Amino acid sequence: MSGFGGGFENSGGDTPSRVGSSDGKPRRNYDEQTLIPVTIKMILNALGDPSGQGEMSLKDGRPLHMVKLVAAVRNSEERSTNIFIDVEDGTGFAQIKVWVNEGDDCSAITQLRQAACRDHTYIRIIGQVKEYDGQRQIVANDVRPVSSGNEVTYHFLEVAYSYEKYLKAQKANSGMGAGGMGYGIGSMASNAPPLQTGGVGVGAQGGFGGGLGGGSALNDAVLQAVKEAGANSDCGVHINDIASRVSAQGFSEGNIKNAIQDLSNEGHIYSTIDEFHVQYAA
Length: 282
Fold this sequence. Notes:
Elements: H1 30-33, E1 36-37, H2 40-44, E2 56-57, E3 63-64, E4 66-78, E5 82-88, E6 93-99, H3 107-115, E7 122-132, E8 135-145, H4 149-174, H5 188-191, H6 217-230, E9 237-238, H7 239-247, H8 253-266, E10 269-271, E11 277-280
Parallel strand pairs: 1-4, 6-8
Antiparallel strand pairs: 2-3, 4-5, 4-7, 5-6, 7-8, 9-11, 10-11
């Protein structure tokens, strides 16, 4: 999405939820709530939770909660309550599970989902990694076709950038480097299928920046507005509605929109039906 890249976090369970943690676990801090751009190889190589609580982590130590993935559709199967999509990205194969809420999803969400089920189409997936009977899959909050080949390239650059940013933070905090990530980007060019984008266009993701970061008074106000206004809508909340709500607290419209972009780049919110609607990553 132009100017407002996407990110999210989901509470426990299969069915996507957008309000708080419902499993009794302590609420995650800002860093653990952010969306992590990944490759399929990173998911397959992720470390399981020895305690049996279902939490996974990447080899570099980052909690594997909500992820963003760009991959090509190889097969899809629609059922009464969900859709299974088999995808590959040049580093591995994975299965995506999308819950279908007939009558509840807005028409734009339904159109994007249908376009994302076409074979050989590159799609962007945002969701939570789960493990069933020893097999890992992504329970998706959002699936949509990419708009162009640039979005595919951007994603793999973002995977590398995200890791480097984490590595620098680890070195700054402890003076020690993080472990090897093994994201397998090098095989993308030679192994990935030709690009075909879907029939429903969506904007390319925003830049890598993230000036404010989670936790400031303005960011907290924006996040609260997104949570409250978008709690009962898969389509999210319009950025003008956010600006109207938060400006009443004394913040300028320009600073509010900058905060929305920063929170999006940092993975606390993500775009939904277009570049003007966002949803909280919860």
